[in-house]
Amino acid sequence: MVNIPLPMKGQARELIVGIDLGTTNSLCAEVVNGKPVVILDREGRAITPSVVGIDDEHHAVVGDAAVERGLTNPAGTIRSVKRFMGRGLKDISDVEVGRLPYKIVRTAGSEQVAVRVHGREYLPQELSALILGEVKKRAVKATGGKLKRAVITVPAYFDDGQRQATRDAGRMAGIDVLRIINEPTAAALAYGLHRGKSGTVLVYDLGGGTFDVSILKLTEGVFKVIATTGNTALGGDDFDYAMIDLLTAGLSDEDKAALDAHVQGRVALKMAAERAKIALSGQDSTSIQLHVGDVSLDTTVTRAQYEAAIDPFVELTFDAIDFVLDEAGLDPEDIGDVVCVGGSTRTPLVRARLEEHFDKPPHTDLDPDQVVAMGAAIQASMLAGEHAGDGTVLLDVTPLSLGIETYGGGCSKLLWRNSPIPVRATEGYTTQVDDQTSVDIHVLQGEREMAKDLRSLGRFKLRGIPPMKAGMPRVLIEFFIDANGILKVQAKEMTSGVEAGIEVTPTYGLTDDQVEDMIFDSIEHAEEDVEAHLLADTKVEAGSVLRYSRKIIVDRPDLVPPPLAVQIEAAIGGLVAALESPDREVIDAAMQVLNESTAPVAAHLMNEVLQVTVHGKTMGEVLGTKPRTKASEIQLT
Ligand code: AMP
């Protein structure tokens, strides 16, 4: 029996779960006492069939109830909705659509497909939400807990749209989706392979109707899918049909035709074939007796016969393995661990062939149907701040640094590349000119130093800043990347409280190759970039020093006698001329001369500050536009 803590009286415990939202079946697991366990419902069932039944009054039933009603309501029974998540009509083959008992249509105003059932359209994510809702209901009933937060798994090949649709389905089911993770990554997590810190893992996933193989690279506890391929029409069903051929080999053509014409006969034969297949996973031969109408079948099949029959299908999976290895530039001996996922990996031939190919036994200790949900539960538990017994593990990182454009065209970085997410960073900024009532926040991504060389993620304006001297407003900018990789940028002016912000997905539309190019570029241009950034910052600082110096001549003639004014004017002229130079040191030297010429005035002003603050004036009112150069007070545009 599964050990699930009982809730205290009157207090529902929060369930933080991992959900394997499968094409055929879905299931849910949680971490209990540091170990992932699949949640069984009150009837002891681990699996919820991913099937939705909709009757002509548009009442929906989900899971086993939908499967039961499927025979009487084929046009309202929706299976395999996962295949349509986040897809457009152009992504789906006509063959796929043609085989379905319901209609696939394009939604009005969007490229996305919908399922038309009894004259009404349902989005795939709505149907998936119903499945997630059923999984949730069962878990809640079985444990007495409250299910609000979950990690949901998707195939490694899912694109952004498919992942977003899955996230939306979670939200519609009232679930806060902590993260969407790849199914192979979840499987590797379930086997604790992230503890190795580095290595290469091949995940072999052979289910009833689909096959996927992925290679994951683990670096510093972070998994990355480096190659993946598969076949959406290869799996245990093919083994069943191979078995049917073996079982009926001795029948006459008339008997075969009679069996085929008999609907229930066909179903019974398929079930008998699956039973025989499963029996041969544990024994060397099995006998089958079946009577359908006038046809009787009584035969024995050996494992050797069966293995010869399924060998071509198993071979196809090894072709795919060779393809991903080639794609990743690896040889079989480079693979450190092989993980089995999916019910058909219980087939001894599959396991033996994997062991032979990689010269090491695959991981098979965990239930291959449950391993993905278990890994997702481990991830959920980590994200919720519980640790599945092994401390913090980094699973996702920001691939590129993130920052904002500062005055002069430089970039001030708030988050550095490879920061584990979720992550938060805050930095203080100020304004460049007097009475600036708004600032532009330009969010940038990449490793280069200047805004023009970086990827622009978005811009927004923080308006409504009360007029103040330059350098006085305190603009606090916060970057937060949540567990799903979504970046929220928030800017707040602290004296007035005005706020603004945006939300972007930094990795949207970014390929791994682009990330690599951007990093490579920054290394190539490192020296010139740093120099350009320093030059830009020096020019900004020189601009402030110039404004300040000009202002004190005009505003404080009492402190600037004519000979000093001449000296300052000359130094101003020197700095203006120096600003034409591309040499930072020339500008620095001219700035130094100007600062020295205004130093007696600055000292006098400082004394005034000390006195007048006592009389209630603020430091800013007295200091005017005194330039600020501290890193935490970088000026915004
Ligand atoms: P999945 O889609 O991962 O649930 O896998 C289901 C497939 O696994 C079906 O084709 C089952 O017939 C097959 N399967 C389940 N148990 C076994 C077993 N012991 N030996 C071989 N195939 C199995």
What does this 3D model show about the protein?
There is one protein chain. The chain is α+β, with helices and mostly antiparallel strands and 637 residues long. It has 4 domains: 14-191 and 367-384, Nucleotidyltransferase, domain 5, CATH 3.30.420.40; 195-365, Nucleotidyltransferase, domain 5; 402-511, Substrate Binding Domain Of DNAk, Chain A, domain 1; 528-635, Substrate Binding Domain Of Dnak, Chain:A, Domain 2 (Up-down Bundle), CATH 1.20.1270. It is built from 16 helices and 27 strands. Strands 1, 2, 3, 4, 11 and 12 form a 6-stranded mixed β-sheet that branches. Strands 26-25-24-21-27 form a 5-stranded mixed β-sheet, with no helix packed on it. A hairpin with a 5-residue loop joins strand 25 (487-493) and strand 26 (499-504). Helix 5 packs across helix 11 (371-383) and helix 6 runs antiparallel to helix 9 (303-328). The protein starts with 13 loop residues before the first strand and ends with a strand. Adenosine monophosphate binds next to helix 6 and helix 8.
What is the topology?
Layout: E1 14-21, E2 25-32, E3 35-38, E4 48-49, E5 52-54, E6 60-62, H1 64-70, E7 77-78, H2 94-98, E8 103-106, E9 113-117, E10 120-122, H3 124-143, E11 146-154, H4 160-172, E12 176-182, H5 183-190, E13 198-206, E14 211-219, E15 222-231, H6 236-247, H7 253-261, H8 263-279, E16 285-292, E17 295-302, H9 303-328, E18 337-341, H10 348-358, H11 371-383, E19 402-405, E20 411-415, E21 423-430, E22 439-445, E23 455-462, E24 475-481, E25 487-493, E26 499-504, H12 512-524, H13 526-555, H14 562-578, H15 584-612, H16 619-623, E27 634-635
Parallel strand pairs: 1-11, 11-12, 13-18, 21-27
Antiparallel strand pairs: 1-2, 2-3, 2-4, 5-6, 5-7, 8-9, 9-10, 13-14, 14-15, 16-17, 19-20, 19-22, 21-24, 22-23, 24-25, 25-26
Helix pairs in contact: 3-4, 5-11, 6-8, 6-9, 13-14, 13-15, 14-15
The structure holds adenosine monophosphate.
